[in-house]
Automatic annotation (TrEMBL):
One of its GO terms (biological process) is methylation. It holds the Pfam family Methyltransf_16. GO terms for cellular component: nucleus. The keyword Nucleotidyltransferase does not apply. The keyword Methyltransferase applies. Keywords: Methyltransferase, Transferase. It comes from Cinara cedri. One of its GO terms (molecular function) is protein methyltransferase activity. This is Lysine methyltransferase,S-adenosyl-L-methionine-dependent methyltransferase.
Length: 295
């Protein structure tokens, strides 16, 4: 399925909304197991704003020689290029780009004071690496991690190379599977320097969520100075038990965090500037986790 080979698939596959939004002219079928889809490697260009979209403040209006207002353009003058797959099975969703990756990208760009300078950032479930690449535009080092799958880890490396002109930080790519009982020695060595953890769209399967929370506990125990920012999309479904809509994966994650009483949890206001072009739906959230010092 790699290296631009095109294959036909008849397994259950799904496609990220981001890909659909960016390729509105392409024909998209709904997720189903009874159809044939073309699965291929693609490159997507994620343009982002480099200057404020805010209308000019009245104190700073500029006019031309005729006295007409000079309208400030808001150029999407830079872009991150990401190679990924256009649709995948559930166990390979990391080979696509998901909305939360762009939300976390916006969050990082809008909070450069948190992510710049000497920060060493660990990304969990990096997928094809978009969020980590944004972080690598500002901080000292980014450690990209995901399950030990050659396709995913080598795709992150490829995307780092594709965007090397934007990247200022040192980058490392290594396996980290939340399901593994022990973290590798190499990872432990790296963790000593990490002070920020980021993750986008890793809350969608309760078993993975449980393992993620245990992994966070292990990592954050190394130094209480670590802060984790977990971006996700609350995916709503109708519950026949409650006869109402609910976001089961998100609720399971919040319940686990509460049960543990190990983390201080803050739900961040996501009303920050949007730098990337995507549909920033209201279901997107970021949780900020710090360790509970009373423990
Ligand atoms: C929905 S994708 C999100 C990818 C990327 N962060 C994004 O937002 O575009 C979920 C990610 O979690 C990773 N993942 C799933 N199970 C995992 C595990 N047990 N350990 C580490 N990562 C895992 C997947 O490989 C995938 O990269």
């Amino acid at each position: 399925m790699m290296d631009n080979t095109t294959v036909e698939a008849k397994t259950y596959t799904l496609q990220s909304e981001i890909y659909r939004e960016m390729n509105a002219d392409e024909e998209h079928s709904v997720d189903a197991d009874d159809d044939t889809f073309v699965i291929k490697n693609v490159r997507s260009v994620f343009r982002f704003k480099c200057q404020s979209m805010q209308p000019p403040n009245s104190d700073h209006f500029s006019v031309d020689e005729d006295g007409d207002l000079i309208v400030l353009r808001s150029p999407f003058s830079k872009a991150i290029v990401i190679e990924h797959i256009n649709r995948t099975s559930l166990n390979m969703v990391g080979m696509q780009v998901w909305r939360s990756a762009l939300l976390m990208g916006d969050f990082i760009m809008g909070n450069k004071n948190i992510f710049s300078g000497d920060q060493v950032i660990l990304e969990l479930g990096s997928g094809v690496g978009l969020t980590g690449i944004v972080a690598a535009m500002y901080c000292k080092e980014v450690v990209f991690t995901d399950i030990d799958n050659t396709n995913i880890l080598s795709m992150i490396e490829k995307n780092i190379r594709l965007n090397r002109d934007l990247i200022v930080s040192r980058t490392t790519v290594m396996p980290l599977d939340f399901g593994e009982p022990e973290l590798s020695d190499v990872l432990w060595t790296k963790l000593r320097d990490v002070n920020i953890i980021i993750a986008a769209d890793v809350i969608y399967d309760n078993e993975i969520t449980k393992q993620l929370v245990n992994t966070l506990k292990k990592i954050m125990a190394v130094s209480p100075m670590k802060t984790a920012y977990i971006g996700m999309e609350k995916r709503y479904v109708f519950s026949s038990v409650d006869l109402d809509v609910c976001a089961p994966s998100y609720e399971y994650f919040c319940d686990l965090l509460k049960q543990n009483n190990w983390f201080q949890v803050e739900i961040l206001d996501c009303n920050f500037s949007q730098y990337f072009q995507y549909n920033k739906v209201k279901e997107l959230v970021i949780l900020k986790l710090t360790t509970n010092h009373s423990m």
